[in-house]
Amino acid sequence: MANQKLTLSKYSIGTGDRFAHQAKAQLQACVKALESGIEVVPVWNKSNREHTIIGSEPLSARQAADAAVKALDWKQQYFCDADHITLQTVGRFIDSCDFFTLDVADFIGQPAQEADVDAFVSRHPELLGSIKLEGADETFEITPESLRQAAQKFLGAVKKAGEVYRKIESVKGAGNFIPEVSMDETDRAQSPVELLIILAAIADEGIPVQTIAPKFSGRFNKGVDYVGDVAQFDREFALDVAAIAYAVKNFGLPENLKLSVHSGSDKFSIYPSIHATIKRFNVGVHLKTAGTTWLEELIGLAEAGGDGLALAKEIYAEAFAHREELCAPYATVIDIDPAKLPSPDEVRDWTSDQYTSALRHVPGAAAYNSSLRQLLHVGFKVAAKMGRRYLDLLEANEPVIAKNVTENLYNRHIAPVFLGQKG
Fold first, then answer.
1. I want to staple 211 with a disulfide (CB 3.0 to 4.6 A). Which of 62, 136, 180, 312 is the partner?
2. Interior CA angle at 63 toward 58 and 68, to 5°?
3. What does the pLDDT look like over 55-89, one tens digit per residue?
4. What distance in Å separates the CA atoms of residue 55 and residue 48, rounded to the nearest whole number?
């Protein structure tokens, strides 16, 4: 895949900015990382669904990123990600974006053509028998039957990724954008062996993929900590890293190919595992965060008091009233206990400190409420409907909001994952 020109750096972080007001504060966290001796490249991500809900266009995300880069005199890489796009939605992103997350999870399990399966199996005799991944203690056995089953399950999804990739390439040209393949929003985690087979298929499809987002075991709910067996995640993550190294060596994929951890914001309990593994293998990682910045906007408004606090309370009341509608699109990535949601009447009487303490994700803090946090995470539609009323308050309270955004991204995410510091 010699056509690779644009190369994503070793460490990168996906930063969602739903209302296109926090790019500078987010970039400030990457500036702090650079001052600490490590380059973490910002990738501003926004999905078609988010643009549709907010009523924005991809150009607005590009303009916000460009303005932040200019304001802070950022000389390193930065990208704008067309997040979770499909063949139907990619068109509106092509001009403004240079990073494309090809989301094909919906096509996993759709039976592939028998001729395609036959061709794949015949092309990859090296995948049969015992596979030893360098740096891993385990040996994996792949039988002809298991190889065919994996090919039947994943080939259709990979071919769909190829269609989207080629549509982008036909406009932007080979090597002028970063391709990521995403398979995380599905019911079952892919095993390291399945990841190996997926990567072989991606190579066959001619996609110079630079990041791959598999589904790991455990729950990666929006904006809250990982729920699952940390030791199991640690094992999986290390084996996936080893599988990528094997694929790069044997299938000709880009040397900088790395894992992408989706819904990666606030997964505090697995950050030490991620850091230890990327250091042990000397590899990169892409940590994708999104709605956590929108929550920091709410925290900043509540912290500011006055009209900001009043609006934050109103947003909670509206989210509470429309929680079923708001939660439905995110049902697979949230776990809200309705019994733990305070009533809007109770929240109306809260002080600024009570609101921020319930919403701010501080593990072990008595006042922290993960159900409230998840509801507000998916409740950005409420603020979007407020239009200028919400945006005007963001701008009026910019200093306090920016401080929260930067501290959250640097202290709770960048420092533990990339620097190995406690968040």
1. 180
2. 130
3. 999 999 999 999 999 999 999 999 999 999 999 99
4. 10
Please check whether residue 19 is in contact with residue 391, taking contact to mean a CB–CB distance below 8 angstroms. Answer: yes
Domain ranges for the chain, please list them: 11-291+410-419, 307-407
Query: For the structural domain made of 11-291+410-419, what CATH number should be given?
Result: 3.20.20.70
Cβ distance 43 to 78 under 8 Å?
yes
pTM for the full predicted model? 0.96
Q: What angle, 0 to 180 degrees and rounded to 10, lies between the N-to-C axes of helices 292-304 and 352-359?
A: 170
Q: Is the pLDDT of residue 2 over 70?
A: no
Instruction: Quote the crossing angle between the two packed helices 388-396 and 398-409, to the nearest 10°.
Output: 80
Estimate to the nearest angstrom the gap between the alpha carbon of 241 and the chain centroid.
Answer: 17
Phi, psi dihedral angles at 44 (to 5 degrees): -80, 115
- The length of the chain is 423
Amino acid at 15: T
The Cα–Cα gap between 154 and 152 comes to 6
Band (138; pLDDT cuts 50, 70, 90): confident
CA atoms of 316 and 278, how far apart (whole Å):
39
pLDDT (mean) for 190-195: 95
With contact defined as beta carbons under 8 Å apart, do 216 and 241 qualify? no
Contacts of 317-320 with C-beta under 8 Å, sequence gap 24+, read 317/344, 317/347, 317/348, 318/379, 318/382, 319/375, 319/376, 319/378, 319/379, 319/382, 320/344, 320/375
Residues 301/359, Cβ–Cβ less than 8 Å: no
Residue 55 φ/ψ, nearest 5 degrees: 85, 30
